[in-house]
Design goal:
- It is a single chain.
- It is built from 5 helices and 5 strands, in the order H-E-E-H-E-H-E-H-E-H.
- It starts with a helix and ends with a helix.
- The chain has a 5-stranded mixed beta sheet, sandwiched between helices.
- Helix 3 (54-63) packs parallel to helix 4 (78-87).
- It has one domain: 3-Layer(aba) Sandwich (Udp-n-acetylmuramoylalanyl-d-glutamate--2,6- Diaminopimelate Ligase, Chain: A, domain 1), CATH 3.40.1390.
- The protein is an alpha/beta fold.
Length: 115
């Protein structure tokens, strides 16, 4: 599953990043506590959060995340998009709740044989 697949599955929009990127989702991680995300030891995580701030992007960069999804159609500050662009982290905005996103991503990964 790539970032373009994530956008479709989560009915979202790609705010920043390359829709044609073929970097695959390794593990979806849902958290609003960036200190918890820093403890995740996995490759190519997809960070699912409701925290619409630059800190989400910076944390994603530190852990080597392949992308960030902000939920509940929260307004994103322009600085968040700018940081995502600078750090080359795809940023997606989704109208869905984190819970619904987790359910949909789990189903999609299971269908691919990844879960």
């Amino acid at each position: 599953m790539t970032i373009s697949d994530v956008v479709k599955i989560l009915e979202g929009s790609l705010v920043e990043g390359d829709a044609m990127s073929d970097r695959a989702v390794g593990l979806p991680v849902a958290s609003d506590l960036m200190s918890d995300v820093l403890l995740v030891d996995a490759d190519d995580i997809l960070l699912l959060t409701s925290l619409a701030s630059d800190q989400s992007i910076r944390t994603a960069h530190i852990v080597g995340a392949m992308g960030v999804v902000v939920h509940d159609s929260k307004p994103l500050p322009s600085t968040m998009s700018e940081v995502a662009r600078q750090l080359k982290i795809p940023l997606v905005s989704s109208p869905l709740s984190k819970y619904e996103s987790c359910v949909r991503l789990h189903a999609a990964l299971a269908a691919e044989g990844g879960v």
